[in-house]
Amino acid sequence: MITRTSTARSVLVALAIATLALAGCHRGLRKDEARLSNPDLIYQRAHGDLVDNNYEQAIKLYEALEARYPFSDAARQARLDLMYAYYRNHENESAVDAADQFIRENPTHPRCDYAYYIKGLVYFEQTPNVVERFFRADMTKRPPVDGLKSFAAFQTLVQQYPHSPYAHDAERRMVYLRNRLADYEIEVANYYMQRAAYVAALNRAEYVIEHYDGAPAVQPALEIMISAYRKMQLPDLADKAEAVYHANFPEGQEKADRKKKHRWRFWG
What is the pLDDT of residues 79-127, one digit of tens each? Predict the structure, then answer.
């Protein structure tokens, strides 16, 4: 038989357990809230997630830090980390927006070089994609819109921050982009030559020579200029372009001479 005393004791035990559980939850909430009430602690947690490649969680914490403590030192550092987290999480537009915002709001900040570097990387890695690499697509036939943006970002980095730790890698990437951009201009110039649009072809070839000095495409650009001037019956300009060509590419002259010699022997 259950007595009133035993029933009362059971009720008291149940209340005590419930109270302890609530107290434990409250302490857990207070502990977590305390972590989120300190910008440095939020940054540490976000940075830990970033190092562990947990980019989505890192982004959430960095965004929360910016929203709660926008003027803290931790938030300023978080903006730099956040653009990298966006980049690694393939949120390209967000990465570029974050980089642009940092540059706009902190034009004299010494870490603007990093923001330009992230912008350059985002646009650099958008082409070619996996499918194009697999099928070996000819990238010279695609308008290099992203390539131009990437080149501009890296160029700003190299010119304004020549001693940046990212400058060397940016220069290497610029060489690749320069060659690809120049190749595209040659592709367009050849298209115009095939359609007898010689003035348009000349403009493209001259652009390569003026803007992409050192690129392998400079040689075919001069060849296009020589051919276009001949087609337009402008021998003086063609001779000048040919003189520049031979001065810079003597091996091209030797190759042309051999070709003429063999042709003479064949027909002779």
Answer: 999 999 999 999 999 999 999 999 999 899 989 999 999 999 999 987 5
Q: Yes or no: say if 115 and 104 are a contact pair by the CB < 8 Å rule.
A: no
- Whether the pLDDT of residue 265 is over 80: the answer is no
CA-only gyration radius of the chain, Å: 32
Predicted model pTM = 0.72
CA angle 48, 51, 52 (to 5 degrees): 85
